[in-house]
Amino acid sequence: MRLLALELILSLLDVRGHIPRFDDFRPAPATPAAGGVVRALAAAIAVFVVLSLAIWGTVGLAISLL
Prior knowledge:
The chain is an all-alpha fold. Helices cover 65% and strands 0% of the residues.
C-alpha cells in the first residue's frame, strides 16, 4: 500500500516519468551525436567571445580614464 501511495504522489508531481523502469533502458549510441558536439563548441566560442569583449572593454575604459 505504501508503494502505491508513493507511486501516486510521484505521478501527481510528474516525477515518475523521470525515473526509468527496467524495461525503459535502451542501448546508448557508441559515439556522441554530432549536433551535441557542434553545440558545445558553439557555446565555448560564445563564452570566449564574451570574455574577450569584457576584457577589451575594461582595458579600453581604463585607458580612457588615464
